[in-house]
Write a structure and sequence with these properties.
Blueprint (H helix, E strand, L loop, with lengths): L12 H15 L17 H16 L3 E4 L5 E5 L8 E7 L12 H18 L6 E6 L12 H10 L18 H8 L12 E9 L4 H5 L3 E7 L1 E10 L3 E2 L11 H17 L5 E3 L3 E4 L5 E2 L2 E10 L2 H22 L2 E10 L2 E2 L2 H14 L3 E6 L5 H5 L4 E6 L15 H20 L5
Parallel strand pairs: 3-4, 3-5, 5-16, 6-15
Antiparallel strand pairs: 1-2, 2-4, 6-14, 6-16, 7-12, 7-13, 8-11, 9-12, 10-12
Helix pairs in contact: 1-3, 1-11, 3-11, 7-8, 9-11
GO molecular function, one term: hydrolase activity
Keywords: Hydrolase
Protein name: Zn-dependent hydrolase
Length: 425
């Protein structure tokens, strides 16, 4: 697939990258924390300020802005003639706690620059071209990852919004109240128009591109994810008076369980296992832990391997219960299958990279992305740009302006083919 070569189609990747960095630095002020990094959780004041700032940026560039029921923000480059399936591009505005300024935000900024450049250069597209800032993707404040994109897809398919789950944040606030407190603008019917294709630019969050010295990653698939809560209940007691033999120490049990799972995970190629969130009760220096709850995040590109490891988790939990007298309860709260990207969009991204003169390679995404929400229903693809040292979800994540500029140029070429040449898979 080759994109038409207009005389002035090629922008300056260097200037695109510099513009992206300026916008990212401005966006980073919303949720910046003294400890370092950015904490911008969904529906918080920092989140609301970030979306309002993005809305102003979209408006200043001549885009028509609108919202949907859950706070996804859109900026549309209106087509020359009404009708047609819209082309959607963007990413998520929320962050993890003390995250960096590139994850999610780079995709929004890149899409804003790309759509603005296309409109300024060629005028209105032939299909509606929407930049989207998804309300939530990370699943940090509430255990509902991909909340923004799943609701966006539901609206585009004419379905009702996803029912509000009965989950609370760490302050005991449920999603319904959080949405109400965010004082969102009214939802627009424009968010319910069908989507013809979805394209997302994202920093790699790994080091494959940097290690290979390659400019562009063409994502072929996104790994599947399973997430669990593991609750271990022992018996609290005095740290100085209860003998080691008499204890039912929930923390000791949890550590033993996790160590065994980590050993088994390490023996399976390409499988990752992370226990990143912990709650200890009563969490006192002189009290034996009576209850420990921790998260498990399991990822692999094979659904069968995820199923097999799920059985391993259940088996280890059962064995630990028998050996240590503590009770273990396993709760699954995410089951995302591995998701392939659309072959035609993959070919389009590869062609765009070649036409621009940038090196590219196929990559598998080990992180989840909003693209996987759309991929089952809408032709979808992802463009990766290198991350320095593979660092992500941390204050020192970094992608150079040059790398961003090259990725945005590829995105421009892809969006031109989709929205102006109306190439739809």
């Amino acid at each position: 697939m080759s994109i038409s070569h207009k005389p002035n189609l090629r922008p300056s990747a260097q200037s695109l990258g510099h513009e992206a960095v300026q916008l990212l630095h401005s966006l980073a002020q919303f949720g910046s924390v003294p400890e370092g990094g950015i904490t911008r959780l969904v529906y918080t004041p920092a989140w609301r300020e970030a979306q309002a700032w993005l809305e102003r940026e979209m408006t200043s560039r001549g885009l028509l802005t609108f919202w949907d029921d859950v706070g996804n923000l859109y900026g549309r480059s209106e087509p020359a003639s009404p009708g047609g399936r819209r082309i959607l591009t963007g990413s998520h505005v929320d962050t993890v706690r003390q995250g960096g300024c590139f994850d999610g935000a780079a995709g929004i900024v890149a899409s804003l620059i790309a759509v603005s450049w296309l409109r300024a250069t060629y005028g209105p597209p032939n299909l509606p071209l929407d930049v989207v800032s998804f309300a939530e993707e990370e699943g940090v404040r509430f255990p509902v990852a991909f909340w923004g994109s799943s609701n966006a897809l539901a609206a585009a398919e004419g379905r009702e919004p996803t029912p509000l789950p009965r989950v609370l944040d760490e302050d005991g606030i449920d999603i319904e109240r959080a949405i109400r407190d965010a004082n969102l603008p009214p939802a627009s019917r424009r968010s319910r128009q069908p989507v013809g294709a979805y394209v997302e630019l994202h920093v790699e969050q790994g080091s494959k591109l940097e290690e290979a010295g390659v400019d562009i990653g063409v994502v072929t698939a996104i790994v599947g994810q399973r997430r669990y809560w593991v609750e271990v209940v022992g018996r609290a007691g005095h740290a100085g008076t209860m003998s080691m033999q008499a204890r039912v120490d929930a923390m000791a049990c949890a550590c033993s369980l996790l160590n065994e799972l980590l050993e088994r995970a390490a023996a399976i190629p390409d499988l990752t296992l992370t226990a990143g969130q912990w709650h200890v009760e009563p969490n006192a220096v002189n009290v034996i832990p009576g209850r420990v709850t921790f998260s498990l995040d399991v990822r692999h590109s094979s659904e069968r391997q995820l199923d097999l490891f799920a059985c391993e988790i259940e088996r280890v939990c059962s064995n630990i219960t028998a050996e240590r007298r503590a009770s273990v309860r396993l709760t699954s709260w995410m089951n995302q299958a591995p998701v392939p990207m659309n072959p035609s969009i993959i070919a389009l991204i590869s062609s765009a990279g070649n036409d621009a003169g940038w090196s590219s390679m196929p990559v598998l995404s080990g992180a989840g992305h909003d693209a996987q929400t759309f991929a089952g229903s809408v032709p979808s693809g992802m463009i990766f740009v290198p991350s320095r040292g593979g660092v992500s979800h941390a204050p020192d994540e970094f992608t150079s302006s040059d790398a961003l500029g090259r990725g945005i140029e590829v995105l421009i070429r892809v969006l031109y083919a989709l929205a102006y040449e109306t190439y739809l898979p």
